[in-house]
Amino acid sequence: MSEIVLRADGVGKRFGGFTALSGVNLEVRAGERLGLIGPNGSGKSTFTNCLAGAFPSHDGGFTFKGQKLAGLKSHERARRGLARTFQLPRPFRGLSVFENIRVPLAYAGRHEATEERAMECLEAVELAGKAQRMPKELTQVELRRLELARATALKPELLIADEAMAGLSHAEVDQILALLFRLNAGGTTIIMIEHVMRAVTEFSQRLAVLVAGKKVADGDPRTVLSMPEVEEAYLGR
Ligand SMILES: Nc1ncnc2c1ncn2[C@@H]1O[C@H](COP(=O)(O)OP(=O)(O)OP(=O)(O)O)[C@@H](O)[C@H]1O
Hints:
Blueprint: E1 4-15, E2 18-29, E3 33-37, H1 44-52, E4 59-64, E5 67-68, H2 74-79, E6 82-85, H3 97-107, H4 114-124, H5 140-152, E7 158-162, H6 170-185, E8 189-193, H7 197-203, E9 206-211, E10 214-219, H8 221-225, H9 228-234
Parallel strand pairs: 3-8, 3-9, 6-7, 7-8
Antiparallel strand pairs: 1-2, 1-4, 4-5, 9-10
The structure holds adenosine-5'-triphosphate (ATP).
Pfam families: ABC_tran (PF00005)
Protein name: ABC transporter ATP-binding protein
InterPro entries: AAA+_ATPase, ABC_AA/LPS_Transport, ABC_transporter-like_ATP-bd, P-loop_NTPase
């Protein structure tokens, strides 16, 4: 079995008096494809934000590649190999597709040829042909592909894909799935947060389920999805 790349230990987060996450433990192994699911408002994005360093957790913490992440800012976590996509893609609207990838690479201070790496990233998401276009000229699925290129430009070891497929057609979901499978085959560990159940079940080797900020299940997807508490909470049966 491969080594544990990420460990969450008792992660908790409150917003004022509201507890959004409570005592969440999770282990992810190198190269794994994990689906993190749960109903709206169950804490999936809050978990991602705590992990990525967008805001601090109140309790517990994360260990990534054997090192604690507490106190590290988002960009420091990114440099250590942790990447995430945003539910709503946030391209730099005033920059071309190419510059959207090149600029963050240059900012990250990579000494490798950033122009070549930027082009390689666009090729990987099949956007090389649109390198000189502006984000507003892209379709929804192309924006999601650009978001994936941005997130993976620094060759992360772990990618959290937060609802990368919301609102896409069946065929477009397949495009994103194929990209994520390809990234994983190249060695990237992936946590998929998704409401498109077909995609989650096709992709995930394991499922973890959050309900009201607590992890209620974690295991083989078929077993997890047939658990009565998961069916009741998640599928509303
Ligand atoms: N910045 C914030 N301030 C106050 N409450 C917040 C904040 N961010 C999230 N919450 C609350 O925390 C809870 C968990 O939200 P979160 O976005 O993590 O859920 P989610 O599982 O990602 O939902 P969805 O599937 O709809 O994206 C929700 O009740 C939400 O309203």
